[in-house]
Amino acid sequence: MSVQAPGAVVMVRPHHFTPNPATAADNRFQSLDPSREDARIAADAYDEVSAAAAALMGEGVRVHLFDDEDPARCDSVFPNNWFSTHAGGRVAVYPMYSPSRRTERRGDILEMLKGAYRVHEVVDYSGLEHDDAYLEGTGAMVLDHVGRVAYAARSHRTNPMVLERFCAQFGYDPMVFDACDESGEAIYHTNVMMAIGTGYALVALELVRSPTRRGQVRDALAATGREVLELTAEQVREFAGNAIELTTPTGRVLALSERAAASLTPQQREVVEDSCRLLPLRVPTIELAGGSVRCMLAGVHLTPRATTPVPEVRRALRAVP
């Protein structure tokens, strides 16, 4: 098992998916599809999540798939924004920037984790929403579990003080930087421009504003022995940075969207495939919401309990207040 690449994930299959108008102001990756009615978009998103979950399970990844039938939670397909799991039995719960997303936090998911895995502590930062301080999980942070560095692009959704608190409690060194797209707008989530695998890192260094910080990010990644693959701004728009490496019984895979995989250069693919296999997933409807495969998968870095298996597919229960 790779320290960086989990062998299990949590996914949420929405019944009422739609790009969230409440998050569009600072998420430049969102888009609309006027050719499809809302009901068709929701049905297509449901099918895409179902197919992605089946593909992952077919590779031997353990998938905990939760259904969400609440029409008010149009972004619930991205559970990695509200919780993360960590070796040693710890779970973090995060403060969300948009009030429209705060009911995505679900007690049934946390209870499943406690029942299926060894969880010793749940650290809940969600109360910081009352102080307008936000840190949207592994969207806001890209975690190097080997080098113990939390990379974070500063934005409305990534508060450096909350990041410092998380790092102090979970044993990471923070690496905060300013990153902007070609129009000068801040990158809303770090995981659209950066993905860290076991033997490589995909990162859009050209979007990091400070040349000094750009070099520090590169050096920190290279210090772990990884090959640093630079993404272009165009590849970031194709969600090439929104990928996650996973461990399967037959080796590691890099889960990413078909669109993202198609944007990689032959040289980039060669480096990645020296370390793992590419696993492209078809999620064009989900990508309308401004996120892709990495956002859909909340990795489980916990030790399984030797108990009766937990059902892999669950219906939505009430959200955590």
From TrEMBL:
Q: Which Pfam families does this one have?
A: DDAH_eukar
Could you name the domain of life of the organism this protein comes from?
Bacteria
Tell me where the signal peptide lies.
none
Q: Which PANTHER family match?
A: AMIDINOTRANSFERASE
The protein's name in its UniProt record: Amidinotransferase
Q: Give the species this sequence originates from.
A: Marihabitans asiaticum
